[in-house]
Amino acid sequence: MAHTCTPAPTSTSRAPAHVVAPAIGHDIGQRRSLADALAHAARVRGDGRITCVDNDGIERHWTYRSLNEQARHAAAALHARGVLPGSRVVVRLADPHEFVLGLWTCFIGGLVAISTYALDDLPEDAAGGRELAGALQVLDPSALIVSAAEQGRARALKDAHGWAHLAVVTLADLLAAPAGELRTVDDPDRVAIIFPTSGSTGTPKPVTQTERALLAMAAGSAQMNAFDSRDVFLNWMPTDHVGAIAFLSVLPTCVAADQVVAAYPRLRADLFLWIDLMSRTRASVGWVPNHIFNIAAKRLDREARRDWDLSALRFLVNAGESINPALVRLFVQRLRPCGLRDDAVRPAFGMSETCSGITWATGLHDVDGHVDLGGPIPGAEMRVVGADGRALREGEVGRLHLRGPSVTRGYFRVPPDEKFLADGWFDTGDSAFIDGGRLFLTDREGDAIEDLPMRGHEVEEAIELIPEVLGGHTAVCSAALEGTRTLAVFYCPEAEHAGAALQSRIEELLRRRLPGAAFVVTALRPQDLPRTSIGKIQRKVLRRRLERAGGPAR
Prior knowledge:
By secondary structure, the protein is of the alpha/beta class. The chain is globular, with a radius of gyration of 23 Å. A hairpin with a 5-residue loop joins strand 2 (about 50-55) and strand 3. The chain has a five-stranded antiparallel β-sheet, with no helix packed on it. A five-stranded mixed β-sheet has the order 12-13-14-15-18. Helix 7 crosses helix 8.
C-alpha cells in the first residue's frame, strides 16, 4: 500500500523518525552461547526452579542444576547417534517438562532446534500426518524428538516417506544411553533455532536465529525492564511461538529466574486457571495475545472474582495482534481489587524475525486510538521511512524498519528478498509512526481499513463491548465484493444469544458509527474462526473465503 506522510493528529515533534537505543550493557551480553547461559544459571542459582504443569494439572520440576546435567547427557547421546552440532532437530513434545529438556538439549548440543506444536496426536495412519510430514520435507532434519506415546507413529511416518537418515528418538532413550562425549560449540553466530512465521501476513517462511541474536534480545530486554533472578516468568503459550521460546524460556534462564511452564490447552480451555496460576505462583512476568484479555475481561464482567493475589505481577505483555485498549482496561479494572497494577499490562512489538520483543512499553497508553508500543531495546534501532526510503519526521506515517543484533539474518533456504535492506535494516512491511521515541503501528502488512472514520480494531472493540458477543472472537477486514470495497465483519455470539436480533443490533451499530459504509456481517461458530497457534485470528483467510464465496452464506 502507499505510505503517506500524514502527521499523527497529536504529534508536535519534528525530530527525525529514527530512534537509536543505548548499547547493551547487561551481563547477558558477555555470554558466548546459550549453553553458557544455562551453565551460569546452574552455578549461581542451581536450585532455581522450573515448575512444569501438564494438561492434567500434574506438576513436575526442573532445577537449573538438574536441567543442565540432563540436557548435557541427552545432547551427548544425540552426538553419539551421529546427530552432530549443526544438525537440525525437530522437537515435538506437548508435555512441558519434556519440552524444556528437549529445547535445552538442542541448545547445549550445538544443534538447530525446530520446535513444533504438538496440539493433536499424530494419527495412527502414517498418511494422516501430512502437516508434520510437510515440515520435515522442507526442513530436512537429522532427528525428531517425540514422546514415547508417539514414537511408533513417528517411525511409521518416517518409513512411509523413506527418510532413512531421520533418527526418531525419545528423551527417555537419550537419558538411558551411556554417558558419552559432549561436543561443545563456541560460535555465537551459529544458527540456534528456526521459527515458523505465523502465516498471518503471507506465506510462512522459516526464520533462522543465531545464538547471538537470542542472547541480544535477552540482554536488551533484561536491561530495559530490570528482569532478574527475583522474577517469576509464567509461560503457557504454544511451544512453536517465538514468544514462548525466546522471551519466556531463554530470557528467564539468562537471568536465572524461576519459571512456570504450563500446557496451553489446559489454561486456554479455562482462563480462570491462568489467573489461578498467576496468583498461586506469584508470577511477575507473563505474556498473552490481546484476544485473551478480551475473553477474560468479558468473563470477569459476568462472574465473580476468585480470591486472587496478583500483587506480584508487574509485566504482563500484550502482543502478537492488534490491541483493543477498552477491553484491556476493563480487564485491569476488574482485577485491580486483586492487586493488579494499572501499569502491569505492557504492549510490545516483536516478531520471529526479531527474536520476540524488540520494543516494550511502560504501560497501556494510546495516541488517538494508536497504542504505544514503546521504544527499542538496548542495541536496537527503529526508523520510519517514506516511499523514497528516507527517514520521515516523528508523527509521519510510513514504513517501519528495524536494525540490531536480535534481527534475523535470513530465512531458511530462501534467498534474501526486499525485506533485507542495505546497512542491516529489515523492512517489517508494517505502517507506523514514531512519537516521542515510541512506536505506534497503524497497519499490519496491508490489514488497514481505509476511508472509514474508525480503525479496524476500534470496530472490533465496539462490537465486542456488546454483552451478547463472545469476547476475543471478532474480526473485521476489507473485502472486494461485486466490485465494491466492503467492510467484512465476523463475530461469534454467546451460545444462548445467537440469532437475528443480535445480528440486527450489530448492523445498526455499524450504520450509526459508519454512515454510508458498505458492510456485510457474518456470524460464525468459534471453531470456524481460523487462528494461528497462539490464537490470533487470520483475517486474510476470512477475506479470501468471503471473496471466493461472493459474500456471506445465507
